[in-house]
Amino acid sequence: MGQKIAKRHADKGVCLYRQRLFKEALTEFEIACRKLDKNDDLFAVLNYMCLVYMDLGRYHDVLVCAKRQAVASERLEQKSLQLEATFNMARAYERLGEYRTSIALCNRCLVTGKPPEMSPLSGYTHLCLGDNFYGLSDVKKSLKHYDRSSHVARVLCDSVLECRVYLGLGQVFESLQDHVTALQHFSRASEIARQFTADHPCEKLQRRVDVELAVVYGKLGRVAEALEICEVRIAHARCSSGSSCN
Questions:
Q1: C-alpha to C-alpha distance for 34 and 176, rounded to whole angstroms
Q2: Which of 107, 129, 126 lies closest to 118, judged by CA?
Q3: Over the stretch 174-187, which tens digit does the pLDDT of each residue have?
Q4: Annotated domain spans of the chain
Q5: What is the rounded distance in angstroms from the CA atom of residue 42 to the CA atom of residue 9?
């Protein structure tokens, strides 16, 4: 009976997460975690909690959940889950600026875990490595891993991964003051992000792309285009908050 109740809380949390009601979703997930005694169910709920905390920018909490996942996956003795927990830890450390720790964990996924080369885990791990090396200002290695991630994204037709790769590439070229090339990558990221519907978990990527586009347009002296993006984004934010959208 207790497990059925826990799963109901977990299912409700998933629905709330898809509605972008993060705080409410966390409440349901936390209740589920306290009641679940099967490690595979617990791992799945913790994975959703990692996603919520990433969206909220609470990266220390992502790390805590990922470490709990690692314990659960060890009990299950499932290699694929162990790799997923390791990757979640790597993502958290990258966002916390612990780039070398994140790189070590990414390498553990790729070298020790040996996931299939054309798999989501491989693609996102290379993306994480690209982000880490960008953080360390190692442009050559950053571009190498973004290129590998891009290849996986194209093979798997993973539009979210592809969008994130173009964002990363845009940032790299922006840091090199190559604004024209940066604009090309950000524009491609924008084309992909516009395909995500309002209820898509990664719809938020369009907002991030718009910020990058506005900045690079400004640096290129294309002020009118930068202003237009900002005005559209402000109008969209007002609509989302319930203001009149006529």
A1: 48
A2: 126
A3: 999 999 999 999 99
A4: 172-246
A5: 12
